[in-house]
Specification:
alpha/beta; 281 residues; 2 domains; 16% strand; Rossmann fold; globular
């Protein structure tokens, strides 16, 4: 058996097209503010991709770039200004920030209805109460990909490998809200391969290249690989793709799987935030 390859690049392209059609009918364009500090090369690529994708769908994207020595108070002052700017509908802070900055303090400063990354504590609480208007872009993108394979996730056993605030935890909340039975695993989990093998759905988000082997996967399981690590100039996911594709029912590649969906969902969140703010005026 060879797994169905879940083409996140094509699915995200279709999503962006549909979003562009909706935005084209709006009287003004949604506006996204991107705050970036430092000179991290990967962050620079991510920011450029977000700007390009935003422009493609009709979202105005403004970049605020600080050098790596920036004071935390300067970033917070900018966020306060953007919070009060009615022409700005979404605010994101590109992570990671330079080490001297407190990311949590900065993220908590963003107004909830403009927090399109959904990193604030109040947004996390809304997710776990199943009351969120939107959720973190990467987990939301994973869920969308899963639903292209399985229309009803109810009752399925999902194993999430990783417990980060950005992916693992919100992913688990989303899957619970879909009535999955969810097992959260991490670096301290005992008998990890045996646990993963019980899963109908595996979401790997642990940052360990090619860790998940074919022996870990139940035949026919859907495997979503969130990880991306560069080794000797080559990008690898957390899943050993060449092995696992011969066991899984469906699998995402790296690159070309979850990554494009993250950007598409960020733009979708920005549009949702725009509509919410427009309707509240």
């Amino acid at each position: 058996m060879t797994a169905r390859i879940i083409d996140g690049k094509e699915i995200a392209k279709k999503l962006r097209y549909e979003l562009a059609q909706k935005i084209d009918k709006e009287p003004v364009h949604p506006r996204l503010a991107v705050i970036w500090a430092g000179d991290n090369e990967a962050s620079q690529i991510y920011v450029r991709n977000k700007q390009k994708a935003a422009q493609e769908v009709g979202i105005d994207c403004e970049l605020f770039h600080f050098d790596k020595e920036v004071a935390e108070s300067d970033i917070i002052a900018l966020i306060h200004r953007l919070n009060h700017d009615q022409l700005v509908h979404g605010i994101i802070v590109q992570l990671p920030l330079p080490e001297h900055l407190n990311s949590k303090n900065i993220l908590e400063t963003i107004q909830a209805d403009k927090d399109v990354d959904a990193f604030k504590m109040v947004m996390t609480g809304a997710l776990w109460q199943n009351r969120a208007s939107w959720t973190s872009a990467t987990p939301e993108g994973v869920l969308y990909l899963l639903k292209t394979v399985i229309s009803d996730l109810s009752g399925m056993h999902a194993v999430v490998i990783g417990r980060s605030d950005i992916v693992g935890k919100p992913m688990s909340g989303l899957l619970l809200n879909e009535d999955c039975t969810v097992t959260i695993t991490h670096s301290k989990t005992k008998n990890l391969p045996e646990i993963v093998k019980t899963a109908d759905i595996v979401v790997a988000a642990c940052g360990q290249p090619k860790m998940v082997k074919k022996e870990w996967i139940k035949a026919g399981a859907v495997v979503i690989d969130v990880g991306i690590t560069k080794v000797d100039g080559v990008l690898y996911g957390d899943v050993d793709f060449e092995e696992v594709k011969n066991v899984a029912g469906a699998i995402t590649p790296v690159p070309g799987g979850v990554g494009p969906m993250t950007v598409a969902m960020l733009l979708k969140n920005t549009y949702t935030a725009y509509l919410k703010q427009k309707n509240s005026l």
